[in-house]
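Late entry, evening session. Most of the bench is empty. Finally got around to the prediction I had been postponing all week. Sequence below, unchanged from the version circulated by S.P.
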Amino acid sequence: MKLRALAASAVAVLLLAAGCGGSEPETTTNAEGKQLDKVTLTLNWYPYGEHAPFYYGKAQGIYEEHGIDLQIRAGQGSQKTVQATAAGQTDFGWADTPALMAGVGQGLDVKSIGVFLQTTPAAAQFFSEQNISSPQDLKGKTIASTAGDALSKTFPAFLRANGMAEGDVELRNTDAAGKMAAVMSGQTDALLGYATDQGPTMQEKAGKEVSYLRFADYGLNFYSNGLLTSQRNITENRDLVQRMVTATSAAWSAAQEDQDAAVAAMEGASEQLPSAEVVSEQFAATLELLHTEATTGERPGVNTEQDWQETIQIFADAGVIESAEDPGTYWESGLAPKE
C-alpha cells in the first residue's frame, strides 16, 4: 500500500509539473522569422460574441506585433477557468470577477490583470410578451438560476435596491446550460444570465423578442469579465504579461472600430458558435460594457481602485467572498495597458 501511495504521489507531482511548465514560455517563429512567445488563453465559456476581439486580434496580427503566438481555448465556466489558470494549465484566463475573487479567497494563486467588462451584463431575461417592464413586475414570477453562482448571490441585492424582498420571486435551480430551455419551454418565466449571451441566442431559437432587466440599469453595477493570470506568471514573466495586457487592449480597440470584421474573424471558432447575426448582436451589446464613469475615454482594460473597491464591497455583502480585502489582493494594478 505504501509503494502504491508513493507511486500515486509521484504521478501527481509529474502532472503538476507538466501543467505548470517551466519559468520560460515556449517560443515559435512566424512567417517573417520573428520569434514569438507561445501563449494559451482559456475563455470563460464556449466562444460567443463577447470573445470576438481575441479572434480578431489574432487574425489581424495584433498579438504577433507584441511577440505573442496566441492559442485560444474554449472554457467551461469562469470558476474552472480560474482554477486552470491558478494551476498553470493555461497561461491566461478570461473569467468573471466574482469567480476570480472567490478563487483568491480559497487560496488560489491567481490575479486580475485588467477587467474589460466594467459594467455588468447580469440581467433577468424573458420574452417580451411577459409584459415585464420593471423589477416590481417580477413579483410572483419563477426565474431559472444556478445555485451558488454570482448571479444568484447578487440577485437579492438587486431586489433590495428596488424595494423588493427575496420572497417576492421564486428562483428555480437549473444548471447553466438548461436555463434557456427552461424559459423557452415555459417552465420558468425568466432566467438570470448575461444580456450579452443567452438573450440573443434565445430570441433566435424561439423566434420571439427577448427583453431584459439589467442589474446595472437598476442600481447594481459591478465588475464582470477580464484577463487573469497566476502570480507566478506575473513574477517570472512580467514582460510577457504586460505585452498580453497591452495587445488585448489594442485588439479590443481595433475590434470596436471594425465590428463586422471582428465578428467574421470568429467563423469556425467552435461547433457551438451561434449564427453570425447572434454573434454580431452579442458583440455590439458587449461593447457597451467597457467602461464606468471613472474610465470613460481610457483604453479598454484600464481599471481604477475605486471601481475595484465598490465591486469588492458588493460581493462581500452578497457573500461571494468572506471579507472585503484590499484591491491589491485581487488585482495587479501595475500592468495597465500601454500606448
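Two things to note before I forget:
Residues 238-257 form the longest helix (20 residues).
Confidence is low (pLDDT under 50) at residues 1-22.
Will write this up properly tomorrow.
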